[in-house]
Specification:
Elements lengths: L1 E6 L6 H4 L2 H8 L4 E6 L12 E3 L6 E3 L1 H13 L12 E12 L2 H6 L5 E5 L8 H6 L3 E4 L9 H12 L9 H5 L18 E2 L2 E2 L9 H19 L6
Length: 231
């Protein structure tokens, strides 16, 4: 999978994308991440990529640099375009987008190339929404300073699902939000910490009872914390 990220703050991404699971995924050749500075695609002598919103308001990304960035990036690899469904998806992060969920993120595994656009200020010119991107995504009902953090969240949550990235596939299958349920409690050594003991069932070695306990606990936690998931 190839992930292209378009941003005006490329330095924000390197510490996150160069560590841990994402780093190992790149080293294994399971994903290739390219960071692109939107200012490199500006025709302005000062590399400006924004302008005031017509009718009043804050600054908005101009359509020209965004279109040019996407067209140039994809033009470098002609095979990434027009070769049938499921190959390419262009995504814009915005509070107006559809909320990202575990089920939704897994759907992006079907694509071979993703272009992620991280806006700033008041967002991007509406013509980018209407004629360039394929999907708008939000990471929650709140407003951030820009699309960089949502792009990182998206990349992290997706890459760890790519087969071969996480060595223990069962751990991925049993996480929160799988089957619309939160994760069950986890315990480790010591068995007794300041009088707080690990539940006996987890020490029993009875895998059937442990599985039943975990399912019951996951259901209990979900009903308390996120009853909306059970609907």
């Amino acid at each position: 999978m190839i992930i292209d990220i378009i941003t005006i703050f490329p330095e924000m991404f390197y510490p996150v994308l160069g560590e841990s699971i994402i780093k190992r995924a790149q080293e294994k050749g399971l994903v290739k991440i390219n960071i692109h500075n939107l200012r490199d695609y500006s025709d302005d002598s000062n590399r400006r990529i924004d302008a005031p919103s017509y009718g009043g308001g804050g600054m908005v990304f101009k359509p020209g640099p965004v279109f040019k960035a996407v067209e140039t990036i994809l033009g470098r690899d002609a095979d990434s375009k027009g070769k049938g469904p499921g190959r390419l998806r262009k995504i814009l992060f915005t509070p107006k987008g559809k909320t990202l969920t575990q089920n939704k993120i897994s759907n992006f595994l079907d694509f071979q190339r993703l272009v992620l656009i991280a806006p700033r200020y008041e967002g991007v010119d509406q013509r980018v929404h209407d004629f360039l991107i394929d999907e708008e995504i939000s990471v929650g009902d709140y407003v951030l300073s820009g699309g960089e953090l949502p792009a990182m969240v998206f990349a992290d949550s997706l890459i760890r699902l790519i087969p071969g990235v996480v060595s223990d596939r069962e751990s991925v299958k049993q996480e929160s939000f799988q089957k619309n349920c939160l994760d069950f409690p986890h315990y480790t050594r010591p068995e007794n910490f300041k009088g707080l003991k690990v539940p006996e069932v987890l020490l029993s070695g009875n895998h059937k009872k442990i599985e039943e306990w975990r399912k019951a606990q996951a259901n209990k936690i979900t009903r308390k914390q996120r009853p909306d998931l059970l609907k």
